[in-house]
Amino acid sequence: MIVEDNLYYIDIDKDAIPYRFDITLGNSVYLMDVRYNRMADLFTIDLYTQDEDVITYGEPVIYGKPLFSDMADSRLPISELIALDVSGVETQVSWDNLGKTVFLYDFAETDTPPEEDDA
Description:
Mean pLDDT: 88
Structural class: mainly beta
Number of helices: 0
Order of helices and strands: EEEEEEEE
Helix content: under 10%
Largest sheet: 4 strands, antiparallel
Shape: globular
C-alpha cells in the first residue's frame, strides 16, 4: 500500500494484469487477483484467504462503491476499499485513469472518510 496525503491506496500495476499479490487489510493477509476486461473497460478483483480459499471472484471495481459491499462473509476484510478521484474530477474507473487520477483507497487505514455519493 502507498500513502499520499494521509490516504492509503492499493497500487495496481496495470502492466502486470492479470496478476496476484498478497495484501494486509486490517489484521489479516489476503490474496488479490487483479483482472481487466478490455471490452467493458472494467477492472475486477478476485479475493482469497491467505490459505487460498476463495472468498469471491470477479468483484467489479466501480467508482465510489466499496468493494465487497454486497457480500456477507465473515472472512471479508473490515477495510473499506473504494475507487475514487479525491479531486472530484473523475466519475468512473477506466484503464486511462486508474493509477493516475483514480486510486483504490483503503479508508480503514486513514482518518479521512470517503465522500458521500450525491447520486
